[in-house]
Design goal:
The protein is mostly beta strands and 116 residues long. The chain has no helices and eight strands.
C-alpha cells in the first residue's frame, strides 16, 4: 500500500468519484476557499487542477449527462434566502450547464433533483 498526500487545506472537501469512467474511484478534492478542483486519475495516475466555482459554493459532483463519468459541479446559494441558488455543471462529454433550483436555505443532494 502506498500513501499519497493530497490536498493541503483543512477546508478542502473530499469529492472522490469515478470522473474518468473506468469504474474505479478517483481521488479528488475541492478547495472551498477558491473553487479549485484537484483530481488524481485512477486510470494513469495523472493529475490536473482547475478552477470551477468560487468560495461559498458547495461541490455537487454527479453523472448528470448519463455517460458513466462523474461530472464536476457546484451549487451556489443565493445571498437572498428568498431567491433560488444556481447549479453549475461542467459535463464530462462536452459543455456547461447552469440553472436555478431551490432557495438558499435548502440543502439539496444533487441526485434528488436530476434523473440518473
Amino acid at each position: 500500500m502506498t500513501a499519497t498526500t493530497f490536498g493541503i487545506s483543512a477546508t478542502d472537501k473530499i469529492v472522490a468519484a469515478d470522473y474518468d469512467g473506468d469504474r474505479q474511484t478517483d481521488i479528488a478534492v475541492w478547495r472551498t476557499t477558491n473553487g479549485t478542483w484537484y483530481h488524481l486519475k485512477s486510470t494513469d495516475g495523472s493529475f490536473n487542477s482547475f478552477q470551477f466555482g468560487t468560495a461559498g459554493d458547495l461541490p455537487t459532483p454527479g453523472d448528470y449527462d448519463g455517460d458513466g463519468k462523474t461530472d464536476f459541479a457546484v451549487w451556489r446559494p443565493n445571498a437572498n434566502p428568498n431567491q433560488t441558488g444556481e447549479f453549475y455543471i461542467q459535463k464530462s462529454t462536452a459543455g456547461f450547464s447552469a440553472f436555478g433550483w431551490g432557495n438558499s436555505q435548502m440543502k439539496i443532494p444533487a441526485n434528488s433533483i436530476l434523473p440518473e
